[in-house]
Amino acid sequence: MDSSRHILTVLDQITSPDKVRKKIIDAASILYAQKGFNATSIEEISEMAGVSLPVTHSYIRNKSEIMGMIMEDVLKMFQDNLIMMIKGIDDPQEKLAIAVNIYFKVLDQQREKAILIYQKSNSLDKPTKSRIMQLEVDISNIFAKIIREGIEYGIFKRVDVDLMAYNIIIMAHMWILKRWHFKHRLSLERYLNLQLVTIMDALKQ
């Protein structure tokens, strides 16, 4: 039985906002994948999440907002893992390798959500679309900050930092969008390592 169908107690719904939010996100992701964005109602999301409809409405006003929540969930997972893994590491090259590794793996774990964001971005209202675009910029800025550190320390050569940061994002997205092609000959680990070599070759002095 899908864990998203577990019904939260009234106390959970009042005292555990993170748990409620996660249930809504996971339920929406499943239903969007199964039925499509337009065919899914907030009532169905509420039912699958095991969250009462009034509580669900307190988190979201419309379905578009959930797509923003899905993107935020992926970003938070990346940030939380990154903060933990780079603690105490000063070498920008090592830090960038860790960040790339985590982002690729988080995106792979959450690939259904990532694909949904790609597929439905044109169906979203303008505020949600702008919010998702800003969240993507936030991810880019994480990579950009590390690249700038490497340039300042003389480890990386001077490059267009914004372009390089987005190249990394697109490499990760390529695994999600073109996995049907690469999976026949490359594991995620192999794909990641090959792309990491490409990134470091483009940056090293």
Summarize the structure in words:
This protein is mainly alpha-helical. It has two domains: 3-60, Arc Repressor Mutant, subunit A; 64-203, Tetracycline Repressor, domain 2 (Orthogonal Bundle), CATH 1.10.357. The protein has helices spanning 10-15, 17-35, 42-49, 53-59, 63-85, 92-109, 111-120, 126-152, 161-177, 179-182, 188-203. Helix 2 (17-35) crosses helix 3, helix 5 (63-85) runs antiparallel to helix 6 and helix 5 packs parallel to helix 8. The radius of gyration is 19 Å and the shape is elongated.
What's the layout of helices and strands?
Elements: H1 10-15, H2 17-35, H3 42-49, H4 53-59, H5 63-85, H6 92-109, H7 111-120, H8 126-152, H9 161-177, H10 179-182, H11 188-203
Helix pairs in contact: 2-3, 2-5, 5-6, 5-7, 5-8, 6-8, 6-9, 6-11, 8-9, 9-11
**CATH fold-level name of the largest domain:** Tetracycline Repressor, domain 2
Strand content: under 5%
The whole-angstrom Rg is 19 Å
Could you give me the name of the CATH homologous superfamily of the largest domain? Tetracycline Repressor, domain 2
User: Per the principal axes of the C-alpha atoms, what is the gross shape?
Assistant: elongated
How would you briefly describe this protein structure?
This protein has about 200 residues and is mainly alpha-helical. The chain has helices spanning about 10-15, 15-35, 40-50, 55-60, 65-85, 90-110, 110-120, 125-150, 160-175, 180, 190-205. It contains eleven helices and no strands.
